[in-house]
Amino acid sequence: MKRIKNRSWAEPYKIKMVEPLFMNTRQQREKFLMDAGYNTFLLKSRDVYIDLLTDSGTSAMSDRQWAGIMMGDESYAGSENFYHLEETVQNYYGYKHIIPTHQGRAAEHIISQILIKKGDFLPGNMYFTTTRLHQELAGGTFVDVIVDEAHDANSEFKFKGNINLEKLENLIKEKGADKIPYVCMATTVNMAGGQPISMQNLKELRKLTSKYGIKIIHDMTRVAENAYMIQQLEEGYAKKTCAEIVREICDLTDAATMSAKKDALVNIGGFLAVNDYAVFEKARNMVVIYEGLHTYGGMAGRDMEALAIGITESVNDDHIQARVGQVMYLGNKLIQAGVPVVKPIGTHGVFLNAREILPHVSQDNFPAQALAAEIYLDSGVRAMERGVVSAGRNIKTGLHNYPKLELVRLTIPRRVYTQAHMDVIAESVEYVYQNAHKIKGLKMVYEPKYLRFFQARFEPVI
Ligand SMILES: *Cc1c(COP(=O)(O)O)cnc(C)c1O
User: Which of 50, 311, 406, 425 could cross-link to 355 by cystine, CB 3.0-4.6 Å?
Assistant: First the structure.
């Protein structure tokens, strides 16, 4: 179905099975939130009305994918479903070799251990929590080389996922190309607010890295969403299909880590995909230690089948237009209501600018964490902090990393909620924004050592 210009889009599916949602009272939510240490990660999903914590593993599978689940070949070695998955990855993404893993971070672990030496530098278009941690655990140091616009929530630059090539080349000259095994290039950039990189920038990045013999490792978690933005915004791509653009992106890179729980429409799964046979051989050996045999990695046969089908659906133009369209619908509603959000609206969620919403709360009192807590109290909508709590501590000094962006992420699961849910969310966020002066912030009372945002506990500042 091609959309008629200037008419609305609608979901390219109809609903065959429903899952009930539970509503509760503000009084109940006050207790639930206190029990959860004011951390939305620690709430029970039973106590959440609309769950926007993450788009990771929360997508609705299609009837085809569920049928695929019934086709699981649960053989220990050489499962039918592995070969289907391998063929699908080769077909849509073009990478030669694939190693299934239980999710994205396992692929990051393996590639980091293989390619990084102690003392290496890993430039990237902003960091992602698990990616950076695996680089550090392998002895490397992450260096942010994203364009400056990405750190400015109000810049309306279209491709805030772009890499500043001058920054990158300066780093190469300063440290030496032999200290930089690869550039980590994410499509789209999660921590910047779900912002895309342009094809033009990626082509220039390929040229620069080839000149110095540096690899590009593609964090392809949301590659279809990035491809859609290229199709919509970049000159010369309006007539290409999302699938064609996805392939063009992958062809400009050397290897990829994939969290299939996002773009690829499955509840669990991921993979490492590489072109270089020598790297593949090492990875295939390592996966046996940490995940499982190389023809299942961390996945059941049925899950590999659902993933192969999910990849095919994820690059479909009608699907991706409705997926990103729903996020844009919510984002534009909030913009119209005057709520400070990261602009342009990203592809997998709307990011509220907690610094502007709570200018009176210092970063030491975790404004984004406090805002996410308040939205839950108001309506049972669960969001997530992406600010100083997520940024963690500096590995050398032990002090908080203070990111410029202090955000609350309203992440939209794929094919799960309707436009009416988006309206309810927008009304709640608007109400909280209008009453934001009453929010005082939080103090941290328990802090785990790694990836603290998942398990930290807080108390309100009185
Ligand atoms: C989720 C995510 C990962 C990690 O994947 P998991 O499947 O959660 O382990 C890596 N990079 C990005 C950009 C992500 O969004």
Answer: 406
